[in-house]
Design goal:
- It is a single chain.
- By secondary structure, the protein is an alpha/beta fold.
- The chain has one domain: Alpha/Beta hydrolase fold, catalytic domain (Rossmann fold, 3-Layer(aba) Sandwich).
- About 35% of the residues lie in helices and about 15% in strands.
- The protein has 16 helices and 14 strands.
- The protein has an eleven-stranded mixed β-sheet with strand order 3-4-6-8-7-9-10-11-12-13-14, sandwiched between helices.
- Strand 13 and strand 14 form a beta hairpin.
- The protein is globular.
């Protein structure tokens, strides 16, 4: 990836209780990179909750990226494009974009990246907040957190569950305490995330200590509770990884190279991959402390106290299934088995309904409609409907834009270049064939909506049609060319077969 940025001088300075940071200036905003929000989780701190960062003497150079968390290649590189960056366990850092590190109190957007808790980084150019910070006069912060087994393995006597989530909570606490030094308002923080990051935002809504530190929440393509594993299942996967690494005692986990853990984790992912199932082996755990068995009730209880924007893309699974040969060539028996798993005795009737909704009879289209609802759309609309019933309706969107003839359609992650309005950072096949003018118009509409929401809790702005909240009329903003509002565009009333 190549960012279209140019550095100028003098370099901006931010003075914190920990020391002074010297950043750089790009696209008219100050940028501070590789800012530590916790101690490096290395050596004895591997598999430990995040510890406070140490102070430093003098100025700390914050002009260059630090390493990203150890990880395998992204599963969605065929749609999004790839990246190759230095990796290291010393990765618990922030990237901060601000118009100026002054005394102004600007809205703050704290971004949590997706990647199935297995890949990605908040410091990727994909998530550059420069355009949003400049256009919205706000502070944007990207978070790096531990991934895969290093962040989400649960193995008694080795690692407690949900360390990566605890990293995120530590980042939120750091930003709440120190963002004023970067010109941000600690009393107006919006937490936002996509996919695994969207799940993370739900977790923050669910946990009172985290929820107390932000005012608004943006949930993009969250899998809701479907990524939660039981402690027993998670521990079994951790034990299998331990066996694959040849580890015979807990103390050996602190000396095995991170690259070996990532390599073994990748083999385990392949070995345990289920048909038409995109959930990886190491994800958050329903440990009975941070999370119960069902995340949704706790997240709803928090959401009624905050402003919420929630949505998903129309063709979530196209990025996964259009290149999955097992799904593309699925037999009628395999398809029938998937529907039976979800619907039981109603599988036959549900299959007829989904065949009517799918773009074609191709297995990847049919199963894409099914699993897209199961993982993303169903939870989105249930969440919105239950919030409305509780007297706190959210604003709901669906991203419908797709490049003509592009097989990835309006896929998972498709909205990201538009929200960040930074097409220069993307070499993404999912954008190929799109009209540049229409794409820029939509990007401006979407980014201005995110900015408006961070400022006031309402994403409506003059560049969009009126955008009511999602109440009994089930109104949804469809981001497309042109964008428009429709009532129940997904046919929620027809989802009668869901348990």
């Amino acid at each position: 990836m190549t960012a279209a940025t140019t550095a100028t001088s003098p370099s901006p300075l931010a003075t914190l209780d920990l020391g002074t940071l010297r950043g750089t200036t790009e696209q008219g905003v100050a940028v501070f990179r590789a800012v530590p929000y916790a101690a490096p989780p290395v050596g004895p701190l591997r598999f430990q909750p995040p510890a406070p960062p140490a102070a430093w003497n003098g100025e700390r150079d914050a002009s260059a990226h630090g390493p990203i968390a150890p990880q395998p290649p992204s599963r969605l590189s065929m749609a999004m494009g790839g990246f190759s960056l230095p990796q290291d366990e010393d990765c618990l850092t922030l990237t901060i974009w601000t118009p100026a590190p002054d005394g102004a109190r600007r809205p703050v957007m704290l971004w949590f990246h997706g990647g199935a808790f297995m890949s990605g980084a908040g410091s990727l150019d994909w998530y550059s907040g420069a355009t949003m910070a400049a256009r919205g006069d706000m502070v944007v912060v990207g978070v790096n957190y531990r991934l895969g087994a290093l962040g989400f393995m649960h193995l008694p006597d080795v690692s407690q569950p949900n360390l990566g989530i605890l990293d995120q909570f530590a980042a939120l606490e750091w930003v709440s305490a120190r963002i004023a030094a970067f010109g941000g308002d600690p009393d107006n923080i919006t937490v936002a995330g996509q996919s695994a990051g969207g799940f993370s935002v739900l977790a923050m809504l669910a946990v009172p200590q985290a929820r107390a530190r932000f005012r608004r929440a943006i949930v993009q393509s969250a899998p809701f509770g479907r990524m939660l594993r039981s402690p027993e299942d998670s521990a079994a996967r951790g034990a299998r990884l331990q066996e694959m690494l040849g580890i015979t005692g807990p103390e050996q986990w602190h000396s095995v190279p991170a690259a070996d853990i990532v390599a073994a984790q990748f083999k385990l992912t392949v070995a345990t991959a289920a048909f038409a199932n995109a959930v990886p082996p190491f994800t958050p755990v329903a440990d009975g402390e941070l999370f119960g068995e069902d995340l949704l009730p706790a997240a709803l209880a928090g959401a009624v106290e905050r402003d919420v924007l929630v949505g998903h893309t129309r063709d979530e699974m196209a990025a996964f299934f259009s290149v999955d040969e097992r799904v593309k060539n699925a037999s009628p028996e395999a398809i029938e088995g998937c529907f039976r798993d979800y619907f039981g005795a109603a599988a036959g009737k549900a299959t007829i309904e989904y065949r009517q909704r799918a773009k074609s009879d191709a297995p990847d289209h049919l199963l894409g409609e099914l699993t897209g609802d199961a993982l993303f759309a169903g939870g989105t609309f249930e969440f919105a409907e239950r919030l409305a019933a509780m007297g706190k309706p959210a604003h709901v969107f669906r991203f419908d834009w797709a490049a003509p003839g592009n097989g990835f359609a309006a896929c998972h992650c498709g909205e990201l270049p538009f929200v960040f309005n930074n097409f220069y950072a993307w070499q993404a096949p999912m954008l190929a064939g799109g009209d540049q003018g229409a794409m820029q118009t939509l990007a401006t509409q979407m980014q201005d909506a995110w900015i408006a929401f961070a400022r006031s809790g309402n994403p409506a702005h003059p560049g969009l049609p009126p955008w009511p909240s999602h109440d009994t009329e089930q109104l949804v903003m469809l981001f497309d060319a042109p964008s428009r509002v429709e009532s129940d565009p997904a046919g929620r009333a027809r989802w009668r077969h869901w348990p």
